[in-house]
Amino acid sequence: MVIKAQRGNTLRTKGWRQEALLRLLENNLENAEDQDNLVVYGSIGKAARDWGSYRAIVESLKVLEEDETLVIQSGKPIGILKTHKDAPLVIMATSNLVGHWANSEEFYKLYDQNLTMWGGLTAGDWQYIGSQGVIQGTYEIFQAIARKHFEGDLAGKFILTAGLGGMSGSQPLAGVMAGAAILVVDVDETKADKRVETGFLQKKTADLDEALHWIREAQLAKTAVSVGLIANAATVYPLLLQRGVIPDIVSDQTAAHDLLYGYVPENVTLAELAVLRKENPERAIALAGASVAKEVRAILDFQARGSVVFDNGNNIRTQAKAYGVENAFDIPIFTEAFLRPLFERAIGPFRWVALSGEKRDIELIDQYLLEFFADNKIVTNWIKLAGEYVPVQGLPARISWLGHGERTKLALAVNQFVADGILSGPVAFTRDHLDAGAMTHPNIMTENLKDGSDAISDWPLINAMVASSSKADLVAIHAGGGGYAGYMQSAGLTIVADGSDAAADRLKLSLDNDTSLGVLRYADAGYADSLDEVEKKGIRRIETD
Ligand code: NAD
User: Fold this and answer.
1) Which of 278, 324, 277, 276 is nearest to 297 (CA)?
2) Is the pLDDT of residue 448 over 80?
3) Closest protein CA for atom 34 of ligand 1
4) Could you count the other beta carbons within 10 Å of the beta carbon of residue 160?
5) Is the pLDDT of residue 485 over 90?
6) Strand 397-402 relative to strand 348-354: parallel, antiparallel, unpaired?
7) Whether pTM exceeds 0.90
8) Last residue of some domain: 278, 306, 332?
9) 203 and 89: one domain?
10) Might you give the EC number(s) for this enzyme (predicted)?
11) Do residue 171 and residue 307 come from a single domain?
12) Which atom from ligand 1 is nearest to the alpha carbon of 233?
């Protein structure tokens, strides 16, 4: 069976809100890296615990009344509760383990017993929009590096990175959008093929010399190019150093957060690894750890020889440190190095999905943004580029980094367009969990906070409760499974703009309160820009002596 999200205006449920959530679940699978195993992205990030759970979720959404709430525990539907029509239709908690037990060993044990699953950030809660989900984040990182180190221009610059998977597959396109020559190493040729097929990667080869030739050609001509190299990053990075090839920018976005199911060690074929993972998981982990350490040492050497390097949110430094690379944290994390000023004002990765399946709906919303956010250069620059470069994957969708008030302005306008019949169907609004008030991850999102509150995970829990109290349609609390165990806590929300007054109310409350909390979180940590945002936007902050 091949699952695709339903398009058009026929409902299979008791209302558009339920239909929207059902289509988003289907859309996660339509865009999945491995649909047969329900794996959406991020090594083993799943949309549902197992196929029985998937079918039960679908049937539950079909019978769910407006005043009921479907409860899901790590991808398995547990029951339907009578609530009220302003309550979320779906609430879920995914991959959570209690403090002392939140480690990889315990997680894998429970995972093998099918008692939990890894939900990633947007896999478990049906908010995945394909590789474009994190593309603007990566693009903005490249832009920030360009401004800081290369006089604002990446033409003729060489970016080296790794990972052509679900999320990491956005890197080649982000590099091209930033005008650079980008080489992306992935050990799995099928991943490179998928990125070429979906328009995220231009060329691929297994020959390093050919790859470097294409990169050099583009550098000389100052044209953008993306090249996929089929190889292991732990082998290729040191080899480039040996040859004296020093890229301008170096990173990695392989699934290094998970040493068992994510990162592929050197000198093992994928088929051999599949057997090893089953028969001797400890050895598979140890081999992956050693390869991660080798790759990270190479990244540090690139840094010493002048490359701008950064960790792109896959926990690779933490893994490398555990495998002996004491100075792994000399590599800066992208949030602190480049994007924190945006998060301080709760500007983050906001997303919307055209549930009708009509690309035209996204284009109309793009036009609205270009006209009504004309003063916001981040938005207008991005929307123009995205319209030109970002291909449609699954239900047409868009991501744009917007802040407090801006998200609500857009969502309410869109809700009105739905009501007026300007769009061909309702639109779902959501965001990445990597957002100002929504994530605690002391090695990614909250590293080196001003007040040292990096590991306090009250914030995402409050975030989810605020979303539930603010009438969001779906609310999720996730935590770190797999290699992530114990590293992170996050929250997600989805709200459906179906054109009704009730939807307008839900959108306004949910989105305003979500970003208010984001600003308050950073204000609490002492960031001046957040305090300024509190003042400017009239957010009600309580000061204590
Ligand atoms: P994925 O599992 O879909 O893809 C990972 C890719 O890495 C695969 O294609 C795999 O073949 C490749 N790979 C693994 N080991 C390799 C090696 N040694 N050499 C070369 N290639 C190798 O995962 P994904 O969805 O692309 O996510 C990748 C990572 O990025 C995860 O750790 C995820 O948590 C993280 N992530 C970060 C952000 C962010 O905001 N910065 C967002 C999303 C995901």
Assistant:
1) 324
2) yes
3) 314
4) 28
5) no
6) antiparallel
7) yes
8) 332
9) no
10) 4.2.1.49
11) yes
12) 19
Q: Which residue range forms the structural domain that includes residue 148?
A: 132-332
**Domain-terminating residue out of 297, 332, 367:** 332
Task: For residue 102, say whether it is annotated as part of any ligand binding site.
Answer: no
Phi-psi region of 456 (alpha: psi -120 to 50; beta: other; left: phi over 0): beta
User: Is 395 within 8 Å of 357 (Cβ atoms)?
Assistant: yes
CATH, residue 265 = 3.40.50.10730
Ligand 1 atom closest to Cα of residue 314: 32
Question: Is 11 part of any domain?
Answer: no
> What's the per-residue H, E or C state across 276-335?
HHHHCHHHHHHHHHHHHHHHHHHHHHHHHCCCEECECCCCHHHHHHHCCCCCHHHCCEHH
Residue 232 CA, closest ligand 1 atom number: 19
Per-residue model confidence as pLDDT tens digits over 126-163: 999 999 999 999 999 999 999 999 999 999 999 999 99
Per-residue pLDDT averaged across 302-320, rounded? 96
Beta partners for 162? 185
**Whether residues 361 and 291 fall in one domain:** no
Pick the atom of ligand 1 nearest to 137's CA.
40
Dist. CA 257 → ligand 1 center (Å): 8
* Pocket probe mutation, ligand 1, options 251, 253, 432, max atoms within 8 Å of Cβ: 253
Give the separation between CA 178 and CA 270, rounded to whole angstroms. 33
Q: Whose CA is nearest to atom 31 of ligand 1?
A: 255
255 belongs to a structural domain? yes
Q: Which of 73-77, 101-105, 410-414 has the lowest mean pLDDT?
A: 101-105
Total structural domains in the chain?
Answer: 2
Contact 397, 411 (CB under 8 A): no
> Does 294 contact ligand 1 (Cβ within 6 A)?
no
Question: Ligand 1 pocket: which of 34, 40, 129, 186 to mutate (most atoms <8 Å of CB)?
Answer: 186
CA-based nearest residue to 61, from 119, 21, 6: 21
> Within this chain, do residues 53 and 153 fall inside the same structural domain, yes or no?
no
Residue 1 has pLDDT above 90, yes or no: no
Instruction: Calculate mean pLDDT across residues 43-51.
Output: 96
In short, whether 19's Cβ falls inside 6 Å of ligand 1 is no
Question: Would the CB of 134 count as within 6 Å of ligand 1?
Answer: yes
